[in-house]
């Protein structure tokens, strides 16, 4: 008897590191549950046909390009570098930016080096773990430098005399400061993204679409807040304008009152400054609630 095999998707995520927790919780929030294998490298999707591969982040682009998995969550820095190294900058599509793992690839020079513009680095030695990206980003800026490729501890290269400057990932800037380096220019802003190979087997496309729809729901819910407040009737227009990303709020009359209740979903960041402005415009009883799921 012939049985038709249900298509499944494999998603590669970082096993342990800066992206692993956020990647796992993102997929959990999409309603995915997994049975963990003993070696902890392969998790089988229980209610939804999506399985997880837990690997080093550097392996994810290659696994996507070689068809070992159909989706991968990895920093744009790693994906772009791998594509430049292996595929002339092609081969993977960034389907969604995920809003975590944010950092910047920056060019830094020794604090005491009197240099104001990266054009002054023409012909100099630049240490980096991102040779492809560095070469491409410097070329865009008209700079041709000698790349010194290092797999780690890039920040000590200038002190060791093996390079004049470095190109490395920066988030707080603490590492640069500790090594007496000055961030001269940001070359590339990076965050974690969901990647897929440019070509995906046709029978897997509907499943990928379903997963993406859930992911979009999770991403927009995370950015959204449900706001309830009371306001004078005459201030409704002003207050609606103060609510970020709201066009049509729900208006509810309050019994025996000249005031009105306003309910709305704010689709953009809602900060203390917004709440203070709402209060100044006459709002009271302001309540802000998280949105758990959202389906357009
Ligand atoms: O074991 P595996 O290979 O999977 O992990 P890994 O050690 O290669 O990667 P990991 O977990 O350190 O980083 C994974 C991804 O997180 C990176 O590819 C980036 O996309 C992203 N990310 C975000 C960062 C940083 N922020 C970051 N600050 N990756 C590295 N750093 C390093 C940077 O290289 C430098 O040494 O942190 C130092 C600078 O930090 P600050 O805060 O001192 O500026
Ligand atoms: Zn790595």
Explain this structure to me?
There is one protein chain. The protein has 296 residues and is an alpha+beta fold. The chain folds into three domains: 9-100 and 192-221, 3-Layer(aba) Sandwich (D-Maltodextrin-Binding Protein, domain 2), CATH 3.40.190; 103-190, Periplasmic binding protein-like II (D-Maltodextrin-Binding Protein, domain 2), CATH 3.40.190.10; 224-290, Alpha-Beta Plaits, CATH 3.30.70. Helix content is 28%, strand content 32%. It has helices at residues 20-29, 60-65, 76-87, 131-140, 157-160, 174-178, 205-223, 236-242, 272-280; strands at 9-14, 34-36, 42-45, 50-55, 71-75, 92-97, 103-110, 125-128, 146-149, 165-170, 181-190, 192-197, 225-232, 250-253, 259-266, 284-290. The strands form three sheets. The protein has a seven-stranded mixed β-sheet with strand order 2-3-4-1-5-12-6, sandwiched between helices. β8, α4 and β9 (146-149) form a beta-alpha-beta unit. The chain is flat and about 80 Å long. It starts with 8 loop residues before the first strand and ends in a 6-residue tail after the last strand. The mean pLDDT is 94.
